[in-house]
Specification:
alpha+beta, Rossmann fold, globular, transcription regulation, General transcription factor IIH subunit 3, nucleus, DNA repair, vWFA_dom_sf
């Protein structure tokens, strides 16, 4: 008898963790701040393609700034209320809006009197490893 293969078994799912370094001292940001927007759009497209591959795939995006690192996606607490836009899958809209909104909040929360220093990349990597082992 033929076995029925279920594509949605838990072992078939995969987790993608992306760390976005948004430190304003980065050369690509100091030379042209608009490059960050293009990079963010490419990261969101890559994340959406990962989620599109299998319904059980998971995603985490961590923003790394000079004063703190925090999860941009998934957002702690209640997710945003998102509706379908131009036939776009709701999850893609949720990912895009959540990441952009949380990144703006991360950048706006930086202390104004403090001079930007090094990125907290090691802390962001530790957060990613903790998320993976959950």
């Amino acid at each position: 008898m033929d076995k029925i293969i279920d594509d949605d078994t838990p072992s078939d799912s995969s987790l993608l963790v992306i760390i976005v370094d948004t430190n304003p001292n980065q050369r690509y940001i100091t030379e042209d701040p608009k490059v960050l927007t293009g990079c963010l759009d490419a990261i969101i497209a890559f994340a959406n393609s990962h989620l599109m591959q299998k319904s059980r795939n998971q995603l985490a995006v961590i923003g790394c700034h000079f004063h703190k690192s925090e999860y941009l996606y998934p957002s702690p607490g209640k997710p945003l209320d998102v509706r379908q836009i131009d036939g776009q899958y709701e999850l893609f809209t949720l990912v895009e809006k959540t990441i952009k909104m949380r990144l703006v909040n991360l950048i706006k929360s930086q202390p104004q009197e403090e001079r930007p220093g090094e990125s907290l990349l090691a802390g962001a990597m530790a957060m990613a490893l903790c998320f993976i082992t959950r």
